[in-house]
Design a protein that fits this description.
The chain has about 110 residues and is an all-alpha fold. It contains 5 helices and no strands. The longest helix is centred in the middle third of the chain and has 40 residues.
């Protein structure tokens, strides 16, 4: 209820502003509002995304061991278990947890 009241009051104040300014001032205000919105919702997020991508690329270029470590982690035991689930579908693995781990350990990834 208070949010709706706040929105109505804000719209009323905006209408009062628009009604009491000259056309030239209104055009300048609208241009400034549109540019500010574009900067906030388009330009700044794109700048952050590009800077993060460039930073990550530079780090990976200077320290290739980080990429190798990430790749090795992706191919670790967790990937084997996930690959086993994909191969077996919804069928449950038989036996105890130790038997399941042994069964999963026998899989070879390509």
């Amino acid at each position: 209820a208070s949010t709706a009241l706040y929105l109505l009051l804000s719209m009323f104040m905006l209408f009062l502003f628009v009604a009491n300014v000259s056309q030239h001032d209104l055009d300048d205000w609208l241009k400034g509002t549109i540019i500010s919105g574009l900067q906030l919702f388009l330009v700044m997020p794109m700048c952050v995304a590009v800077s993060m991508a460039v930073t990550c690329s530079c780090v990976l270029c200077c320290y290739p061991d980080i990429a190798r470590e990430f790749y090795d982690d992706a191919r670790s035991d967790h990937s084997v278990k996930l690959w086993s689930f994909v191969q077996h579908g919804d069928q449950a693995l038989s036996g105890s947890a130790a038997d399941n781990d042994a069964e999963l350990g026998d899989l070879q990834l390509r």
